[in-house]
Amino acid sequence: MVNAPLLELRDLRRSVRLPSREELHILRGIDLSVESGDHVAIVGRSGSGKTTLLNLLGLIDHQTGGELLFDGLDVSRLGDRRRARLRGASIGFVFQQFNLLDGRTALENVMMPLMYGSAGQFWRREKLALEMLERVGLADRAQQLPSRLSGGEQQRVAVARALVRRPRLILADEPTGALDVTTGEAVMALLDEIARESEAALVTITHDLQVAALSRRSFLLDEGTLHDVRSDHAREALSATVGLRAGREAVAAPPAGTAPSARTSPPADAARTAPLQETQA
Ligand SMILES: Nc1ncnc2c1ncn2[C@@H]1O[C@H](COP(=O)(O)OP(=O)(O)O)[C@@H](O)[C@H]1O
Ligand SMILES: [Mg+2]
């Protein structure tokens, strides 16, 4: 028997009714199939609908059209309790701002999802959490409070927490957004490595094309649909965006008095590697 892909999106749509009674079509028909062990990146400027899409994939929000199949199962047919159970058991989340509970140690944070796990996971929660902390290289920081850890260490704790129940799908929303370049790349490499080990699928949302380049496949979310980053549409959209701000440094810290436009333009190919400038929606 041929296995269904872990995730299958067919003409997936999400629109919202604005107070003006106008309909805002955020996602206009997304088709995507993600297999176990795959790593997909989705890039897009701010306001393009990335978080909306992630909330659908994470069974947090409901689509307004099309289909979302998880392991062949049409999730729109599930009641809230079954969705919550499926989410807890099968999906791990990593956020830009880590979202660790302060006042709880690193170990307690990683143990948290196991409180809702199977009986076996519950009783072995401390051991499993310690193993996961060890896997992300933080066994010696288990008793630290998040506020005493660096940003990179906090994100590694968050990765351990997301993965401790061995989810089949990992959703990362701008996981490197609050980290410096080197730390961000290390965190991405770790996430990718652990996802592969456990044959989980990883979907990373990012505005940084260098982060996206670490995935197997990258798509641009634009005008409510996905485009392979190598497609003509994506190249055009990306070079138009990159034209606003040249390189990573220009985005991170433009030197005082230096207009971004004063920087040398990137070569046309830089569209695939330079970060996307986030513009406020
Ligand atoms: N519940 C909502 N009601 C009204 N507008 C929304 C709602 N959710 C999202 N939007 C709008 O949809 C667009 C996409 O939002 P979002 O998915 O958060 O984008 P991104 O994560 O790419 O920045 C934005 O213009 C946002 O303001
Ligand atoms: Mg967002």
TrEMBL record:
SMART domains: AAA. Residues 7-248 form the ABC transporter domain. SUPFAM superfamilies: P-loop containing nucleoside triphosphate hydrolases (SSF52540). Keywords: ATP-binding, Nucleotide-binding, Transport. One of its GO terms (cellular component) is membrane protein complex. It comes from the Bacteria. Belongs to the ABC transporter superfamily. Residues 251-281 are annotated as: Disordered. One of its GO terms (molecular function) is transmembrane transporter activity. This is ABC transporter ATP-binding protein. InterPro entries: AAA+_ATPase (IPR003593), ABC_transporter-like_ATP-bd (IPR003439), ABC_transporter-like_CS (IPR017871), ABC_transpr_LolD-like (IPR015854), MacB-like_ATP-bd (IPR017911), P-loop_NTPase (IPR027417).
